[in-house]
Amino acid sequence: MESVMDKIVSLAKRRGFVFPSSEIYGGINACWDYGPLGSKLKMNVKQAWFKAMTQMRDDIEGLDAAILMHPRVWHASGHVENFTDPLVDCRECKARFREDQIPQSQCPLKPSKCPGQHDKCNLTEARHFNLMFKTFMGPVEEDANVIFLRPETAQGIYVNYKNVLESSRHKVPFGIAQIGKAFRNEITPGNFIFRTREFEQMEMQFFVKPGTDEEWFETWRGIRMDWYHQHGIRPEKLRWHKHEKLAHYARAAYDIEYEFPFGWSELEGIHNRTDFDLSRHQEFSGKKLEYFDEETKERYLPYIIETSAGCDRSLLTFLVDAYREDEQEGEVRNYLSLHPKLAPIKVAVFPLVKRDGMPEIAARIVADLRPRMEVFYDEKGAVGRRYRRMDEVGTPFCITVDSETLTNQSVTVRMRDTLEQVRVDMSQLRTWLEERIC
Ligand code: GAP
């Protein structure tokens, strides 16, 4: 039996959502490329997040900081010292594992050369392995020129906090939201796009007065869980996981977990980072990062509440959660029940047949809708097959121009999930769709 994950990986490849990176060279471990539909879906996920953070609120600003940062940033942040995983080697099969993930790890050679049970096997002592990718700035490859690819986008926000504050004239509490690439030399990447070495984060840092941090932490927990509900994730597939063992910067941390086919796993982290980051950057840069409260005349380093989501991981969650199978006319139909806001194609337009002026009417509908939403036109083959192809990529609405259109200017609109069909007057079509998509 093909597992749900296998089906999703195969659908993603077949329909142009996600391809293995550098595939013609045999691929490169844990790197993936987003295809025509995947890049649209990803863009929609990012837009939905950025809109919720910045457009819908007046206390958060956006930022797009560089990936390459001054190397001192990573000393100040604690990443050079602490961003390590315990790495162990199996002396039998030579495979490498994260010590804390041995029980779940598969032996690549089992059963021929290695006992396979790595928790009882001949393992080396754990060594600390730093997850940051290093490279060199400029043409000379020497220690003085070492820089890192950022392992999180958050630090770009901290070092810009004064710039944003002064240019936008906000007062604490306020936030900065950023979407961007991050890189981690993970020891055990895997599960498709769940854990990769290059990925995108959607991070928001909310700067608050010390003492109000616990309340804001709870507020942000609520907002972030709601965001997933509002974008169609089934609530019973989401839960909270409280961290008992905290990262070096955190005072409290919760993960939003999703029940993936491979088990409950982290989707997003909400952290109370206190004034750890700003105080370290103040110390390492020698620049004052305190906030002056004009009303109370107090000076303080704000505390930071962080919401940190993976864009690729959210996309995987939306795909997994949307994947459905049902039976129609004796055949299995598979479809993606994606929220209309996220669906890569919003509406497909079909002339029922390629004559009687139907393609021309369909072309006029496409021309009218295209500036406002992603439209797909298809005139080939049986209409049932055209519907199925759109179901499989999650298109919420299919419009068919048929013989009735010729007499009364209405079209059939067919809904992906319920298969319900309604007739909509062509003059009302754009508004009808916009109300359901935007
Ligand atoms: N700034 C805090 C931070 O980076 P994190 O828990 O290490 O916290 C936040 O990462 C989110 O980034 C995770 O919840 C996950 O969605 C995503 N993420 C982290 N490592 C990832 C990886 N190797 N591949 C894909 N997504 C990853």
Explain the overall architecture.
The protein contains 13 helices and 23 strands. The chain is of the alpha+beta class and 438 residues long. It has three domains: 264 residues, 2-Layer Sandwich (BirA Bifunctional Protein, domain 2), CATH 3.30.930.10; 42 residues, no CATH class; 93 residues, 3-Layer(aba) Sandwich (Rossmann fold), CATH 3.40.50.800. The strands form seven sheets. It has a seven-stranded mixed sheet, with helices on both faces. It has a five-stranded mixed sheet with strand order 20-19-21-22-23, with helices on both faces. The two termini are 38 Å apart. The model has no long low-confidence stretch (mean pLDDT 95). The structure holds glycyl-adenosine-5'-phosphate (GAP). Glycyl-adenosine-5'-phosphate binds next to β10, β13, β16 and α9. The site of glycyl-adenosine-5'-phosphate has 19 residues, from β10, β13, β16 and α9.
Number of helices: 13
Class of the largest domain, according to the CATH hierarchy? Alpha Beta
Unique bound compounds: glycyl-adenosine-5'-phosphate
CATH superfamily of the largest domain: Bira Bifunctional Protein, Domain 2
Give the number of domains.
3
Q: Biggest sheet: strands side by side, in what order?
A: 3-9-10-16-13-12-11
Radius of gyration: 25 Å
Structural class by sheet pairing and helices: alpha+beta
Helix content: 25-40%
Show unreliable segments. Answer: none
Number of strands: 23
Largest sheet: 7 strands, mixed
In the CATH scheme, what's the topology name of the largest domain? BirA Bifunctional Protein, domain 2
Shape: globular
CA-to-CA gap between the ends?
38 Å
What would the average pLDDT be, to the nearest integer?
95
Tell me which CATH architecture of the largest domain applies here.
Answer: 2-Layer Sandwich
Strand content: 25-35%
